[in-house]
Design a protein that fits this description.
The chain has 223 residues and is mainly alpha-helical. It has twelve helices and no strands. The model is unreliable at 197-223 (pLDDT under 50). Keywords: Cyclin.
């Protein structure tokens, strides 16, 4: 679903529009078998449903423009038909507490309680956490966790070291987050972070090798 996230960023819409779209998409697929060739159409339709639920009317992009940008191969009539199918399947239950909503709620709780400790860096960390939530929504292993658990795990990963465990534990106690599930979620988050770092390092080494080869070729030509 990373392509849908890029699309959402290109249209400068709220992160919640993307996160809710993934939730609608996943919820639909839980009860409905869809051929691979139709998955992109289902995803873009879920995105349209999400946009209309989250964004102000003046910010909602024209259907034709989004279809062209997404290259999903769907027509406007396809979207309208699929929209009705999805809404009926999920029983018209669009609004839900997504990981993004939980994250913002947890952040407000932290900021209200420990304003003096985090006031200078809190907004920066929140933006980073929102980005991480969106990355998580592109990984099916992480989307299987409850929204509250994923949001709390991401929040802890950002504020750990700035707030002590007792301060962070306050939220866990209030929301009653299961320790076992939280641990599993943290492990997957760490693994995903490590994998991404490994890929980045490989890319850097590849660039360095190409650059070195180019220099050697230039030196050969000069001589």
């Amino acid at each position: 679903m990373s392509w849908l996230r890029v699309l959402n960023e290109n249209f400068r819409l709220q992160p919640e529009s993307f996160v809710l779209a993934v939730h609608i998409f996943d919820k639909f697929l839980l009860t409905t078998k869809v051929r691979v060739k139709y998955l992109r159409c289902v995803a873009i339709t879920a995105y349209f449903i999400s946009i209309k639920a989250v964004e102000e009317d003046e910010n909602i992009p024209v259907v034709g423009v989004v279809l062209e940008a997404s290259q999903c191969g769907c027509s406007k009539s396809d979207i309208l038909k699929m929209e009705l199918i999805i809404l009926k399947t999920i029983d018209w239950k669009i609004y839900v507490a997504t990981p993004m909503i939980f994250l913002q709620h947890f952040y407000q709780m932290l900021f209200a309680a420990y304003r003096s400790d985090i006031k200078n860096i809190s907004e920066k960390l929140l933006v980073e956490a929102e980005g991480t939530i969106q990355e998580c929504m592109c990984k099916w292993q992480l989307t299987k966790f409850k929204s509250s658990i994923l949001a709390y795990a991401v929040l802890v990963s950002k504020f750990q070291g700035i707030l002590d465990e007792t301060q962070l534990q306050t939220i866990q106690d209030v929301v009653k987050i299961d320790n076992k599930e939280l641990f599993q979620c943290k492990v997957l988050l760490m693994k995903d972070k490590t994998d991404n770092h490994t890929i980045s390092m490989k890319e850097l080494r590849t660039v360095d090798v190409i650059h070195t080869d180019s220099k050697e070729k230039l030196e050969v030509v000069k001589t």
